[in-house]
Amino acid sequence: MPHQQMDLIPRVSDEEKVSAEAQIIEKQKETDFDIREYPIEIIVHKFTEKLEDSDKAELFIPDYQRELVWSPEQQSRFIESIFLNLPIPYLYVADVTAGENEGRIEIIDGSQRIRTLVRFLKSDLELEKLKILKLLNGFTFNDLPLSRQLRFKRKTMRMIELMEVDEDSRRQLFDRLNSGGTKLYDMEQRLGSKDGEFTNFIKNLASNEAFRSLCPISEVRVSHRDYEEMTLRFFAYLDGYQSFTKRVDEFLDDYLEDKNLNGFDANDMFFEFERMLRFVEKYFKYGFKKNQNNSSVPRIRFESISVGVALALRENENLSPKSMHWINSDEYKNLIRSDASNSRPKVINRIHFVRDSLFGRAIQYAE
Asked: Where in this chain does the record put each GmrSD restriction endonucleases N-terminal domain (predicted)?
């Protein structure tokens, strides 16, 4: 009898149901969006216009996504899907409502697809390993008949544009769309799985107040241990930027593991890091920032400046640059723009540009 009475008591009360439903409705209202449809040619234009001279294209990839790159085979299969009129997932983007990117559209999910379209339309992608349209293997966009080129550029893709979504929410949505919300970022994984003296050394340097003042980043990036990652990148590139051939994540993993296993000179590395920061504070008007209003320094900008400065100081520890105008030059902007890759030549070129510009000499570009 007591059990029968208990069964009559609902597990969730009517009041709780009403409250839960009200919360669902409230949160749904917070995610306002429009569905848009654009031809491929327009999407590529929105991503590339003004990229060369100001890195201010309307569509942009946030810093935390820039190293996620499809293989040529994956890119080719995506292009094949478009030719075959197969369903293409929606692009997710967000209207940025504050900060230096206000008014621009941040790509939340779809950066790989857009970058693939850009490469293909520029004929930088040669199709390979196609399973259905096998006769297109080896083709670039320019190899297609003009009629097919025009039809391809007119094909449309749908885009969900979110309104009034802050940076933290955009990052969370990226996590959910790409990994069910459970993804650990690379640096979080490293710190959790690669214990050792060098890992602790990186953690300590990453908390340096001068470093954080000169190189502000968003709270979201702080929570994903970007300061630790940038510190690791500084040393890894400083020691091996000319010789690395692997993917960046593998390169960083190997460097961290090697230092933990084989040891390192903590005093020398600490001195070099501190010396670099003092130089940046003295000669770079806004530190690592692009300008006074910049609220979050991209990794690619930090890497080029920090490693370039450290290399210059290895040559001349008393270096006093005659001019810093190069920091705002179109040449430098192009080297660190949002679609810049982490291929070995690109890494070398942006680091050497900073190093050699500090001396006022000709830039030693990678061959």
From this structure: 55-190
